Prior knowledge:
3 domains, mainly alpha
Amino acid sequence: MVEKSRSRKVLALSVLMFISLGPVISAAAQPETKEGSDSDIAEKILEMYNRARELALTWASRAEQAGYEDISNELKGAVEKADDLINQAKEKLEAGDVAMAAELARKAINTLRKALLNVKDEYISSRNATGGREFLLSAIRRLRGLIQRLEVALRALESRGVDVSQPRQKLEMAKEMLDDAVGLIEEGKIKEAKEKVREAGDLLKEVITWIREQIREIKKEILQRRVHRIISAAERTTERLQKLEEWLIEHNRTEAAAKVAEAKDALTQALRKFNEAVDEQNYSAAREALREMLSILKRLRRYFIEYRSRKGVAAGTGG
C-alpha cells in the first residue's frame, strides 16, 4: 500500500515539475546579445526534453507491466510524436532559425507534458480501484476510449487509400467482447469477464501494431518523395548553373561566372557525396549530404529572389 501511494506521488510531482518548463523555452525565442547564449539555451531545452522523454517512457513501461496497455501506448505514441518535433527543432537550429527551433521544442515538451497529465488521473484511478468488478469496469472504459481513438486513426488511413477492413473487423470484435464482459460482470462472473477483457485488449494490441506499421510505410513514402524532389532540383539547378556560367564567360563577366561556378561545384559535390553514401549504405552521411544540398538550394533561391527584386527596382528607377 505504501509503494502504491509513493508511485502516485512520484507521478503527480513529476507531472507538476514539467508544467514549469515554459518560461525557459520561451526565452529561446527572444533575441540574445551574449555570445554562445543560443547554444546554451538549446542545451537546456534538450536537457529538459530528455528528462520529459525519460519520464514518459518510464511510466509507459510501468503502466505496461501493470496491465494498462492503453495508458502505455498513449505515452509511447506521445514520445514518437515529440521525437519527430524535436528532430525538426534540431534542423531549424542548425539552419540558424532559433525562434522556430524554440517553438518546435516547446511543442515537443508540451506533447509529453500533456500525455503525462492525461494519464495521471487514469493511472491513479485504476490503482485505487477496489475489487475485481470496479477494476474491470475501469479497464473496459479505458479500452472503449482506446477503440474510439483507433477508429479515428483507421479513418485517416482509409482517406489515404489504405485498406482498413481487417483491423476494423478486429475493433468490432473487441467491442462485442467488452459488451459481453459487462454482461458477465453484472452476472457476477468476474473470472470470465476478465478473460473477455484480456482477449479484447490483445485484439487492440494487434490493431495498434498494424496502424504503426502503416504509418511507418506512409512516412517512408513521403520521405522518399521528398528526397527525390531534392535530388531532381539539385540536378536541374546544376545544369542551369552550368549554362549560366558559360553565358557569363561568353559575355566577359568572369567575376560573376566564378561565383556561379563555386555554387555549381558545391552542389555537384553534395550530390556526389549523397550518391556515394547511398552506395555504401551510410545513411547518416547520406542525410548530411541531403541537408547540405537543401541548404545550397535555399541559398540560391534567396539569392535569385533578391537579384530579381533589385533588378526590378533598378528598372523602375531607370524608367
